[in-house]
DNA sequence: CTCCTTGCTCGAACCGGTTCGACACCTCGC
DNA sequence: GCGAGGTGTCGAACCGGTTCGAGCAAGGAG
C-alpha cells in the first residue's frame, strides 16, 4: 500500500512511480499505463505525512479563531463555511484552531510544528500579538479584520467605521435624533477587538456630525443579554427612537425587548446595524442592515493566502469592503416628540 | 531547527534528544537539562509531518459534514464548536472536510492519504455509504446520528423518533387536534437523512396514536422557505392550531408567517420542535422545544473516537440521547373550534 | 561510423522524526 | 574478583514519499 509496493508490482523503481504521478519528468506511455493500472487495482493514494515531509508543504491551512466558549456567532459560522469551501477549490484542507492569543498551545502547534502552510486569523484586535508574531516570522497569513497598523499587511476587512456611520446617516435621514448603539460584549471591547472599536468610532463621529444625542452600550452575545440591554436603553432614555447594533447574536433579544416595551418596529422604533443577510432575514420585521458578505470575505481571504503561500516574497495585499445598506423592514421615519425641529 | 541541530548543540545523538523528549527511555538528569536548555534557546518544536510519518499517527481527527452550499444551520455550528474544543482537550486537531458522499475528493483525501487518525461524521443518512465504507475498512470513526442498522456501530445520536413523539404528546395534551409537521428540505428527506425520517416517523405514529389530524411538509433551510411553508399550512387547512418543526433555520420564517396571518403565538397557535436551546431562546416568544444538547453530543463523539483510536479492537459503543422538552412560551392550550370533543 | 542529444529509468540521498539492538560503564551480591 | 543486572548513550534502520545525478538505449546530425 506504499509506493514501493506499487513499484514492485509494476516492475519499475519507486522514483519512476513518483515521476509518473507528479509528471515532473517524462515517463513512457507504456510504463505510465502499467503503473496506473496497478494503482487503480490497489486503490493506492500517497501518504500525506510522507509527502509533506519530503516537499515541505502540508496542503493544509489553519483557521484560527478564539475559543468563544461555544458561543460562536452566525457570522463566524458563515466564515468557517466559506473558508472551507474556498480552500477545497485550491486543494487545501482546513485545520481549525481555537486560539485567541499568541501563546495558546493550539496556536503553537500550528506554527511550531508546521502543521499548516498558512493561516487565516479571525476576530482581530487592534493590537494583535498573533498578527505581529506571524508578520515577524514571515509566516504566510491573512487576517479577517485589520489591526491598528494595517498598511503592509495581508487582510480582508469590513470598514466598520464607514458601515456604522452609514447606519447613523440612514437613521438621521429618517429624522431620528436619539439613537443608541449596541456593541459586542464589554470584554471584547476591552480586549481591543477591532470591529467593536472601529464601529463605535464610526458611530460616535457620524452621530456628532449629525448632532444626534446618543448612548452606547456593550451587550453579551446572546438573546437574554440583548433583551436586558434594550431595557437599559429605554430606562436610560425613554425618548430613544432607534438603535444601531453590531451584535448579531443579541438581535433576537433586542427585538423581544422592544415588543415587551410595546414599541412597534419600525413604527415606534427603528433598528439597523451590521449583520449577515441570512440572519437579518430571520427576524421579523426583517432587518435593514449593512449585509456582511461573509462568503465573499472567506473566499477572498483564501485566495490571498494561497497567493501568498505560492509566492512568499510578494508585498502585502488587502481588501477593504464597504457593503451597502440593504433596505428591509426595520427602519422608518421618526415620529412624535423626536421629530427633527429644524 | 531540527532534531539533529539540537543534538549537535547539546553534544549528544539524535536518538538521545528524542528519548529526552518522549521519556521512553531514561536519560540522565544532566543530559536532559542540557538538551532542554538548547531547545528553549532555539524555540525548537518537532515537525508534525515527520513525527506523523514515523509513528503512524497524525494527532488529527476529521470532521466530515456535507457541503451545504453555505447553508449551515445553527446546530451544525454548535457541533463544530464543541467538537473542536473537546478535541483540544485530548490534544487532537480538527480537520474539516465538506463531504456528503463516500466518493467526494475531500473524503478520499482524509482517508486514503491518512491525514487523520479518525473521523466524526455528521448528517447521517439511513443508508450511508460513508459509514459503511469506514466500517468495512475498520477505520476509527464515530457518527453523529445513526443509520438504519446501528447495532454494532460507534455513534452519538438523538432519538428523533421519541423527540417528535414527545412534541406530539405535548400538543395533544394541550388539546390540539390538527397539527402540521415541518421537516428539513425535500432533497434531504429523499436522500435519506436519518433525523428527517425518524422525526417524521415518530410524529406520524404518535399522531395516529392520539387520533390527531396531521399534514406533513418539507421546508427549505431558510426564513423565506419557512414563511412560504407556513402559508401553505394555513392554506391547506386553516383550522390547524399547532406545528412541530425539526427545521431550525426555518423557525424565523414560520413565526413571521404566523404573524402575517394574524395568528398569535401561543394564544392562537402553538409551535414546538427539536431545536438547540440558544436558537430556541432567540425567537419571541421563546420556543418550547426538545433542546438539542449539541455541546454534549460533540464532546461525547470525540470521547468515543479517542477511545476507539487508542484501542481499535473494542466493540461498538454509542449514546442515544432523549433530552426532555423545555417548556418556554410558544405553546398553549388549543382554543376555538379545534378544542377536543371527547 | 562516430558523436551528441533526447527520452526514459534507476539507485541513492534526503526530509525529520522514532525505535531497536548493541555496548560501555557502574554497582551490587556472592 | 567476577558475573549479573541496570542505566545511559549511540549508530543504524525505518516510516513513505521526492528529487538529484547518472546511465543506458535509440535516434539524428555531421
From TrEMBL, chains A, B:
Which segments of the protein form a coiled coil according to its record? none
State the Pfam families in the record. LacI (PF00356), Peripla_BP_3 (PF13377)
| GO MF term (any one) | transcription cis-regulatory region binding
- The residue ranges of the HTH cro/C1-type domain are 5-45
Question: What span is annotated as the signal peptide, if there is one?
Answer: none
Q: Where is this region: Disordered?
A: 315-342
Q: Which SMART domains match?
A: HTH_LACI (SM00354)
Keywords, alphabetical = DNA-binding, Transcription, Transcription regulation
Q: Where is the HTH lacI-type domain?
A: 1-55
Fetch the SUPFAM superfamilies from UniProt: lambda repressor-like DNA-binding domains, Periplasmic binding protein-like I
| Polar residues biased stretches | 328-342
* Protein's name in the database: LacI family transcriptional regulator
What organism does this protein naturally occur in? Streptomyces cahuitamycinicus
Amino acid at each position: 500500500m506504499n509506493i514501493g509496493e506499487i513499484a514492485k508490482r509494476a516492475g519499475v523503481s519507486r522514483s519512476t512511480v513518483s515521476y509518473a504521478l507528479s509528471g515532473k519528468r517524462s515517463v513512457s506511455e507504456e510504463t505510465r499505463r502499467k503503473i496506473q493500472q496497478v494503482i487503480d487495482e490497489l486503490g493506492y493514494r500517497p501518504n500525506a505525512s510522507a509527502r509533506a515531509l519530503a516537499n515541505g508543504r502540508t496542503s493544509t491551512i489553519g483557521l484560527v479563531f478564539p475559543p468563544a466558549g461555544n458561543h460562536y456567532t452566525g457570522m463566524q459560522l458563515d466564515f468557517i463555511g466559506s473558508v472551507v469551501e474556498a480552500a477545497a477549490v485550491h486543494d487545501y484542507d482546513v485545520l481549525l484552531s481555537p486560539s485567541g492569543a499568541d501563546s495558546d498551545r493550539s496556536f503553537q502547534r500550528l506554527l511550531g510544528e508546521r502543521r499548516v502552510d498558512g493561516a487565516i486569523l479571525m476576530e482581530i484586535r487592534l493590537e494583535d500579538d498573533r498578527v505581529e508574531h506571524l508578520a515577524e516570522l514571515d509566516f504566510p497569513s491573512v487576517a479577517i479584520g485589520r489591526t491598528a497598523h494595517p498598511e503592509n499587511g495581508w487582510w480582508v476587512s469590513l470598514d466598520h467605521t464607514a458601515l456604522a456611520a452609514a447606519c447613523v446617516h440612514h437613521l438621521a435621514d429618517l429624522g431620528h435624533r436619539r439613537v443608541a448603539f449596541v456593541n459586542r460584549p464589554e470584554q471584547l471591547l476591552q480586549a481591543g477587538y477591532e470591529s467593536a472599536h472601529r464601529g463605535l468610532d464610526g458611530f460616535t463621529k457620524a452621530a456628532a456630525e449629525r448632532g444626534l444625542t446618543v448612548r452606547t452600550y456593550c451587550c453579551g452575545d446572546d438573546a437574554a443579554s440583548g433583551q436586558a440591554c434594550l431595557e437599559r436603553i429605554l430606562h436610560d432614555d425613554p425618548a430613544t427612537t432607534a438603535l444601531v447594533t453590531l451584535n448579531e447574536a443579541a438581535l433576537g433579544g433586542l427585538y423581544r425587548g422592544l415588543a415587551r416595551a410595546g414599541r412597534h418596529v419600525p413604527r415606534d422604533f427603528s433598528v439597523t446595524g451590521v449583520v449577515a443577510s441570512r440572519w437579518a432575514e430571520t427576524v421579523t420585521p426583517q432587518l435593514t442592515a449593512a449585509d456582511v458578505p461573509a462568503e465573499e470575505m472567506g473566499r477572498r481571504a483564501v485566495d490571498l493566502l494561497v497567493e501568498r503561500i505560492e509566492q512568499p516574497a510578494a508585498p502585502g495585499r488587502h481588501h477593504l469592503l464597504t457593503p451597502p445598506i440593504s433596505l428591509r423592514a426595520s427602519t422608518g421615519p421618526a415620529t412624535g416628540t423626536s421629530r427633527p425641529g429644524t
